[in-house]
Design goal:
The chain is mainly α. It contains five helices and two strands, in the order E-E-H-H-H-H-H. The chain is globular. This is DUF4157 domain-containing protein.
């Protein structure tokens, strides 16, 4: 879990998992992009909307735009260095596309 400026892990062994660390670093950058506090508001609101929409916690969580960006790019350890700021906005566009098809 990323709570700016910290990454909190369930166990010490996760410190050595580059994908998990990268996933959480993506969240830290998302928090910076939105000046931290608004990130938490948008994250929670998007979760609530998804919960109403999907009626299941796991689906609601996985479809939060911030999570979609982090999961999609957690294996790309160069993602943050490549300057993909506001990548979560692209995830909003995919929601609109899938809703209209």
């Amino acid at each position: 879990m990323a709570i700016f400026p910290f990454i909190l892990l369930k166990s010490a062994r996760l410190k050595n998992d580059p994908e998990i660390i990268n996933h959480e670093k993506i969240h830290l950058r998302q928090q910076l992009e939105l000046l931290v506090f608004p990130f938490y508001i948008l994250y929670f609101l998007h979760y609530l909307i998804n919960l109403i929409r999907y009626k299941k916690h796991d689906l609601a969580y996985r479809n939060i735009v911030f999570e979609k960006e982090a999961y999609r790019n957690e294996n790309n350890l160069h993602y943050l260095k490549s300057g993909n700021w506001y990548g979560w906005i692209k995830e909003l566009r995919t929601i609109k596309k899938t809703d209209t098809q």
